Amino acid sequence: xxxxxxxxxxxxxxxxxxxxxxxxxxxxxxxxxxxxxxxxxxxxxxxxxxxxxxxxxxxxxxxxxxxxxxxxxxxxxxxxxxxxxxxxxxxxxxxxxxxxxxxxxxxxxxxxxxxxxxxxxxxxxxxxxxxxxxxxxxxxxxxxxxxxxxxxxxxxxxxxxxxxxxxxxxxxxxxxxxxxxxxxxxxxxxxxxxxxxxxxxxxxxxxxxxxxxxxxxxxxxxxxxxxxxxxxxxxxxxxxxxxxxxxxxxxxxxxxxxxxxxxxxxxxxxxxxxxxxxxxxxxxxxxxxxxxxxxxxxxxxxxxxx
Length: 306
Prior knowledge:
Layout: H1 12-27, E1 40-45, H2 51-62, E2 66-70, H3 84-91, E3 97-102, H4 107-114, E4 119-124, H5 130-144, E5 150-155, H6 162-171, E6 177-182, H7 191-199, E7 205-208, H8 211-214, E8 220-223, H9 234-240, H10 248-251, E9 259-261, H11 282-300
Parallel strand pairs: 1-2, 1-3, 3-4, 5-6, 5-8, 6-7, 8-9
Helix pairs in contact: 1-5, 1-11, 2-11, 3-4, 5-6, 5-11
């Protein structure tokens, strides 16, 4: 039985197989419409989510399965003090696979150690967000045709952004990748990721403060929001939240074949006027998220469709 706690749980070869399956699902959805008939997915979301929870549910429903679960800790027995380990033992009696989001780092790892069903980490604190990373990889590969030899700009909250941390872990395994880290001083990428991931793998990177300085050299711009829920005081959040706003004027500095990604939700870091730019790929990214989660559910349940 396999779980997904980190993007590194799959080898590069396994990732390629998963992404190929997701692409086939995109092209032939009817072929997979009943693949999970009789199977149940439990979504255990201890903090709010729109895309991650609903995309997991849509993925299972598209496969012909069914879903159950809760959308906040307040609507579960966690509000009564039930532990994660007891919850997952209980859910294992009801469902065939579970997706868990939790504000505490490592909670899904605790769950998988006590589960008798596969567990998907759907985000744990500022740590990992592997299904978003799979979505990002599928999006980049679909738009660019490859996952190597690219300059990736990561912009915004690089300190707390679990999507950024997961994406870096995944992309350093491909050849010719380099990063431009775009953030204010207060939201720089944590030193342990710079040292243990980028430096360790000898990945070229540079840190800049101005988005305008980075745009001309990018193949992919990955925007992120400043996350209010990760700040300890309101003043720091207010000071940081409008640090970057990508608008039509800034997009004129970017290459014609650059694509803009964003894990969403956005607040105001991408102006709505950018939505009509053909390089804006963040809503395509949402759709790719359904395909890749369909592929992941099939893979973890070891279901093969001829």
